[in-house]
Design brief:
The structure is a homodimer of 268-residue chains.
Chain A lengths: L3 H6 L2 E4 L2 E5 L12 H13 L7 E9 L7 E11 L3 E10 L2 E11 L7 E2 L28 E5 L17 E7 L7 H7 L6 H6 L5 E10 L3 H7 L4 E6 L2 E3 L2 E9 L5 E11 L2
Antiparallel strand pairs in A: 1-2, 2-4, 3-6, 3-10, 4-5, 5-6, 8-9, 9-11, 10-14, 11-13, 12-13, 13-14
Chain lengths: 268, 268
Amino acid sequence: MPHDFDAALRLAPQGDHRFAGATHPAYANMVGPYGGVTAAVLLNAALQHPQRLGDPIALTVNFAAPLADGGFEVEARPVRTNRSTQHWQLTLTQGGEAAATGTAVFAARRDTWSAPEAEFPADMPAAAGLARLSGGGAPPWTQRYDMRFAPGEAPRLDGRLQPHSRSRLWVRDEPPRPLDFASLAAICDCFFPRIFVRRGQPAPIGTVSLTCFFHADAALLAAQGERHLLGCARGLNFRRGYFDQSAEVWSDDGQLLASTHQMVYYRE
Amino acid sequence: MPHDFDAALRLAPQGDHRFAGATHPAYANMVGPYGGVTAAVLLNAALQHPQRLGDPIALTVNFAAPLADGGFEVEARPVRTNRSTQHWQLTLTQGGEAAATGTAVFAARRDTWSAPEAEFPADMPAAAGLARLSGGGAPPWTQRYDMRFAPGEAPRLDGRLQPHSRSRLWVRDEPPRPLDFASLAAICDCFFPRIFVRRGQPAPIGTVSLTCFFHADAALLAAQGERHLLGCARGLNFRRGYFDQSAEVWSDDGQLLASTHQMVYYRE
């Protein structure tokens, strides 16, 4: 049996840069599929395209309409291929209408001067010593991740306004699955909407645009394997129906694997 | 005489979602035009499109190839228009080949619960008391901005490795021009490449993907007028040919107007 994530990613080539896929019930959200899996599906169309060059550097996915459960079509078009970089236009359609759009940049990396700058949080307890978030009442996709929040940082939906929306958690696929670019892209969308954290209560929300920057190459992802990743998320501003949130995703030995940024629609 | 920025943005409608434009010598970079103006041109095609709905929320522009000085064509296609949001696919071509691609999300905002989270840096001295960066030897576009760095935070190209790449500056169009979405998008790309700051020396670089999140609505931009904006920039990681940088852009009275994120190619 394949992992549900691989089943959700499955795309059948249709020729002319087109692929056929379908939503998977294991990754259902409140309405339609979990956005992280939709982003991973769009990335996967480029990853498995016969003209692919190198590995992902940047991915942006815009969520244009709720997906209905069922089949969809993805177009992944390599609009420009240079010596070491490749630019993709991505579109997911359902019933002939665009439900998600996106772009990706791939590149063949090479060895250069390299240096970290952001610091891995030294005070984060190991995943093994923390309890997994229980998922009573949460949508199905949340059960496809093992999430373990730093002590005191799990969202408290007690209706009390919080002074900030920062939180940290260990996260991995459930059941465990070796990390790759598609699963890393999906994990970039796993963070609770910062407005839930800030206001201490849920609200109707929807990500409109999600960007993932891949700091890891394939070797770093392979070295991570199935172990938990550390995610550190925050928002900068909530104004007139839209807020942002950003997160870093770290390997468990302190390498930055991805950083991610999104704009999210909200209603009061 | 129009401002050079408006001259650089000028697009002639060609029908069928297409517009004709041209690079402007005032915004020339080392090779081709300043990327911030290219991003602003792509955004401007959607801004002046007759089917436009609302104001920009998110913009992503991928730089696929260096632009040659001269004419180009922009396609801005509204691929999905909902009740309050609109999704755009953007392509800039030169000689029939894609030189930049992108997407944008526009929306009609409405009044909701709103709150800041990021804090305006309280210790930043006022722009009036700081010296403008002189531009000896820098490419022409840098002279189209009045940049005033916080004391000690201007890039020092003395070849000494720095422990971090954070810096803050006041910036506005030169000559002054009332702020709008296009000029705010351009300013999102005005930050010195973080690798110059971190390593204390220039390097061959090129932005491959730039994302701008617009926290401001049109009224906030109008209130800012021609005064300096505060930009606060940093990078998280430099690895194997690519680094990221992020920045917040603030009004001079402490409102977050935009946040921006990019991935940048570098060579040693």
